Amino acid sequence: MESSPFSFLMMTCQVGAEHVLKQEILSKYPEFRFSYSRPGFLTWKIPSCLIQKDKMEIQSVFMRYCGVSLGKITGDDFAKNAVQFWNRIGERKFDRLHVFPKDKATPGESGYEPGLTEESRRIFKTIVSHAPEFFQNKPRFSFPEIEASKGDTVMDCLIAAPGEWWIGYHQAVDWRSSFPGGLLTLSMPSDAVSRAFLKFEEGLRWSGFPIQTGSRCADIGSAPGGGAQALLCRGAEVLGVDPAEMSPVLMKHPRFTHLRGRINQLKRRYFRKSRWITTDMNVSPNYTLDVLEDLVLHPEIRIRGMLFTLKLLKWELFADIPDYIDRIRNWGFNDIKVNQLQFNRQEVMLAAIKNPFHR
Ligand SMILES: C[S@@+](CC[C@H](N)C(=O)[O-])C[C@H]1O[C@@H](n2cnc3c(N)ncnc32)[C@H](O)[C@@H]1O
Question: Does the Cβ of 263 fall within 6 Å of ligand 1?
Fold first, then answer.
C-alpha cells in the first residue's frame, strides 16, 4: 500500500490517439486527474487507495500499457541510470523486468512500426548487468522480449525520450499486459503482400480465435491479401471478396478463392460454409456493420466469430463504439472485445464470437 494519498499512473497509446484516450479515461474513471501528456504518453494523478495489491485493471480501448509510476530518471549515461533504477525500486519485489519505448510516430507512417528498439534492448541489458546478485543469470531476466505470466508483478522502464526513463510497475492481468509495453515482437514475413498481415496476425493472437487447419473464413475487402495470408498461415480455407485484384501470391495459393466483386453484389450462398469472417474495408463503421449484419443474420449462414477493423474516419467516431458493440450483441455474439492494437492505424480492431454454451 502506498503511503502518499496520491499516486501517478503512466500510460502509452498510439501517437495521435492521446486525446481520445484522455476522454475515454475521464469518462470511465472520474476520480482520475489528468496530469501530463506528449505524443503516445500520458500520466494521471489518482487516489492511492485505488491501487490495491499492485493490481490496476483498467478497461480501455485506446490504452496500450498502464503502470504505477515511480518517477523518472534522466541522463545519457546508461550505467549511471541503471544504478539509479535499482535505487529507485529499492526493496520492491517483482517477477519480470520490461523495458520498452513509447511510440515515435503513427504505425505505418514512413515505414515506422511500434515495437522494442535496439536502444530499449541495450537498456534492458544494462539494467540487468547492474542488478543485485539475486537477479543475475535468472532465465526470467534473460532477454528483453520475455513475456510475463498472468498474475506476475512486472517492473517497467518506459523510455519516453533518449536519456529519459520512466520507472513503474504493473501486474500482468491479461494477454496485452504480459508483453513489454503491450508490444508484440512481430515483423512482416518477406512474402507478406500488405501491412494487413501484421494487423490480422496481431488480431488473431489477441482474439484467441481457434482458427486452424480447415477453418473456413470469408475475408471481405481482401485485396491485395496480407490479412488473408495470416489466416492461410494457420491452415484456414479462405474465401476473399474484393472488386480489386488480389496479389498473384494469393491467387496461386491452393486454399485461397477469390470472389471478385463488391460484397453486396454477391450471392449469399457462397458463404454457406463460412464460419469466420474477417474484414478490413476502407469504409465507415456503419457500412462495415451493415455488410456484416446482412451476412450473419442470413438464415443460410452460420458465422461463429468475426474479427474486423472499424475505421475511425474521424476520431469523434470513438464515442459510438458502445453503440457498435450493442448492435453486434443483438446479432447473438455474446463475447465482444475492442481495442486499438499495436498495428492498427486510425481504426480499432473488434473481435466478436458466439459462445456455444451461451443461449
Ligand atoms: C484496406 S484494403 C484491405 C486490405 C486487405 N484486407 C489486405 O489484407 O491486404 C480495403 C479493401 O476493401 C475493399 N472494399 C471496399 N468496399 C468493399 C465492398 N463493398 N466489398 C468488397 N470489398 C470492398 C477495397 O477494394 C480494398 O481493396
Answer: yes
Residue 12 CB less than 6 A away from ligand 1: no
Whether residue 359 is predicted with pLDDT greater than 60 in this model: the reply is no
Q: Is the CB of 224 under 6 A from ligand 1?
A: yes
Q: How far is the CA of 342 from the centre of ligand 1 (A)?
A: 21
- pLDDT of 94 reads 94
Percent of the chain with pLDDT over 70: 97
For ligand 1, the distance from its centroid to the CA atom of residue 72, given in whole angstroms, is 44
In this structure, are residues 208 and 355 in contact, taking their beta carbons and an 8 Å threshold? no
Q: Give residue-wise pLDDT tens across range 29-71.
A: 999 999 999 999 999 999 988 887 555 689 999 999 999 999 9
Express the helix, strand and coil content of the chain in percent, nearest 5 each. Answer: 30, 25, 45
CA distances from 116 to 160, 184, 221 (A): 12, 8, 31
Residue 87: pLDDT above 90? yes
Does the pTM exceed 0.85?
yes
Determine the distance separating the centroid of ligand 1 and the alpha carbon of 220, expressed in angstroms: 7
Given a contact cutoff of 8 angstroms between Cβ atoms, the answer to whether 193 and 199 are in contact is no
Looking at residues 325-354, what average pLDDT do you find?
Answer: 97
Write down all domains in the chain, each with its CATH number in brackets.
Answer: 6-182 (3.30.2130), 196-353 (3.40.50.150)
Report CA(224)–ligand 1 centroid distance (Å).
8
pLDDT of residue 133: 82
Q: What is the mean pLDDT of the chain?
A: 95
Alpha carbons within 13 angstroms on the beta-carbon side of residue 90 total: 3
